[in-house]
């Protein structure tokens, strides 16, 4: 499998950002900065941008309360170790009232990582995971060179 994709119809350069809906820009900015440690910049009275550890950003846009993000559309944040996952989990439980966190799952081994999930005050889902160095980019490169997976059983969680 080639490292260079076939020429696409659109001439695109970079997957630069995603968008997260928030309901109170001030409370959300506080959560992103103080709780998650993201860099935050305000871009208008109802919007901003956040990033952490790289060039990919999320645009934050204030809007009306809606259904919220589906669990399967969560956002992953890597930490260095299982111990860091457990520490983050304990801190989510400790600060859940202050930051409006809900749906905090127990840490577990799944899809080859140790992780847990929680929902923020804007109903966006987050996954805190102990990913190998390089995270999903490294996995992407592996699958790119190895080709498609024919047997879905390779995605079953491994026993600890």
Care to describe what's here?
The protein contains three helices and eight strands; from the N terminus they run E-H-E-E-E-E-H-E-E-E-H. The strands form two sheets. A four-stranded mixed β-sheet has the order 1-4-3-2, with helices on one face. A four-stranded mixed β-sheet has the order 5-8-7-6, with helices on one face. With 160 residues, the protein is α/β, with parallel strands linked by helices. Helix content is 26%, strand content 28%. The model is unreliable at 155-160 (pLDDT under 50).
Topology:
Elements: E1 17-22, H1 25-35, E2 39-44, E3 47-51, E4 57-62, E5 75-79, H2 82-99, E6 108-110, E7 113-119, E8 125-130, H3 135-146
Parallel strand pairs: 1-4, 5-8
Antiparallel strand pairs: 2-3, 3-4, 6-7, 7-8
The gyration radius over C-alpha positions equals 17 Å
Strand content: 25-35%
CATH superfamily of the largest domain: 2,3-Dihydroxybiphenyl 1,2-Dioxygenase, domain 1
Number of strands: 8
Tally of structural domains: 2
Mean of residue pLDDT values: 87
Q: Name the CATH architecture of the largest domain.
A: Roll
Uncertain runs = 155-160
Largest sheet, order of strands side by side? 1-4-3-2
- Helix percent band: 25-40%
CATH topology of the largest domain: 2,3-Dihydroxybiphenyl 1,2-Dioxygenase, domain 1
Tell me the overall shape.
globular
What kind of sheet is the major sheet? 4 strands, mixed
The DSSP helix count reads 3
Quick summary of this structure?
This protein is of the alpha/beta class. The chain is 26% helix and 28% strand. The chain has two domains: 6-66, Roll (2,3-Dihydroxybiphenyl 1,2-Dioxygenase, domain 1), CATH 3.10.180.10; 67-148, Roll (2,3-Dihydroxybiphenyl 1,2-Dioxygenase, domain 1).
């Amino acid at each position: 499998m080639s490292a260079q994709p076939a020429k696409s119809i659109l001439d695109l350069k970079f997957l630069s950002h995603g968008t997260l809906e928030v309901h109170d820009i001030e409370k959300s900015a506080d959560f992103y900065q103080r709780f998650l440690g993201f860099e935050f910049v305000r871009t208008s009275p109802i919007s901003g941008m956040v990033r952490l550890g790289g060039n990919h950003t999320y645009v934050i846009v204030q809007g009306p309360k809606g259904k919220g993000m589906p669990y399967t559309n969560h956002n992953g944040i890597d930490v260095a170790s299982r111990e860091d996952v457990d520490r983050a989990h304990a801190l989510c439980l400790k600060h859940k009232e202050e930051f409006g966190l809900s749906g905090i799952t127990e840490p577990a081994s799944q899809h080859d990582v140790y992780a847990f999930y929680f929902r923020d005050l804007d109903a966006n889902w987050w996954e805190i995971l102990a990913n190998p160095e390089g995270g999903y980019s490294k996995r992407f490169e592996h699958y790119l060179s190895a080709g498609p997976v024919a047997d879905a059983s390779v995605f079953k969680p491994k026993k600890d």
